[in-house]
Amino acid sequence: MQRQILFKCPRTGMNVEHRIDDERPERLEPADAYVSLRCPACMSLHFVNSTTSKLLGERSAQSVSIPRSA
């Protein structure tokens, strides 16, 4: 069985869709499990979290404080 991962290439900024094979679909993967994928956008190797589709080293979205006028 295959499933798709969607991630943003850090070199080109393009959204990349990639299919990975699930050897055993009943197996639950840990939240910090990464797979290495060859990126078709830049042809480099990226490490992508198989659960969240985030790249290794990618920062989570940080909240931006908006100054309020008085």
Written account of the structure:
- This protein is mainly β and 70 residues long.
- It has a domain at 2-49.
- The protein is 0% helix and 34% strand.
- It has strands at residues 2-8, 15-21, 34-38, 45-49.
- A two-stranded antiparallel ribbon has the order 1-2. Strands 3-4 form a two-stranded antiparallel sheet.
- Residues 62-66 have low confidence and may be disordered.
Keywords:
70 residues, mainly beta, two-stranded antiparallel ribbon, two-stranded antiparallel sheet, 34% strand
TL;DR of this structure?
With 70 residues, the protein is mainly β.
Calculate the terminal CA-CA distance, rounded to whole Å. 57 Å
β-strand percent reads 25-35%
Helix-strand makeup class: mainly beta
Q: Number of DSSP strands?
A: 4
**Helix percentage range:** under 10%
Number of helices: 0
Rg from alpha-carbon coordinates: 16 Å
String of helices and strands: EEEE
The main β sheet shows up as: 2 strands, antiparallel
Residue ranges: pLDDT <50 for 5 or more in a row?
A: 62-66
Any idea what the shape is? globular
Determine the mean pLDDT: 79
What spatial order of strands do you see in the largest sheet? 1-2
